[in-house]
Amino acid sequence: MTTGTGAGDGETGGQPKTFTQEEVNAIAGRARIEERQKYTDYDALKARASKADALEMAQMSEKERLETKLAEEQRRNIDADGRIASAMITSDIRVRATLKGIIDPDAAVALLDRAGVSYADTAGVVGVDAALDALLVAKPYLKGTVTVPNLNSGGTPAAKPVVLTAEQREAAQKLSVPEDRYAANLKKTG
Fold first, then answer.
1. pLDDT at residue 145 above 80?
2. Which of 145, 158, 180, 182 could lock onto 172 through a cystine, CB 3.0 to 4.6 A?
3. CB 33 within 8 A of CB 48
């Protein structure tokens, strides 16, 4: 049972009016019906709006329809050109990073400042070499030639890395072998 407490709730002689469960259910049911009636014409309004849009499209001149389609196609072309440029730049960064001896080309892609890098259909990718050179100055560990001291050697000096000649680097590239592995094999054989 629910009790009313306000003056408009039907207080009688200081006692609050009480409601039976049936009365509460009836009041709640009327409130639900009133709320539903507020939105009964929603579907009809939605259908009318859809018909109005279709009618507006039908009334557009052929020129306006073509202009709308052209604008959409131009937007798609711009998006595609952007994706192509991004893929070309990323690919060029990986290739040139590998040629410069960077041990992790994906790290170079992630860390490279692309401010001076661009792509054009006529010129291709421009500015990658300068950006990679700047990256190698800032993060020399990306190139495999940085010597890290062996802290577990017990006081013996770390082995000096083998410096490859230009011909040896070229041979390593042709064999698709990292320069450090090529150098290690040279130590073993000679």
1. no
2. 182
3. no
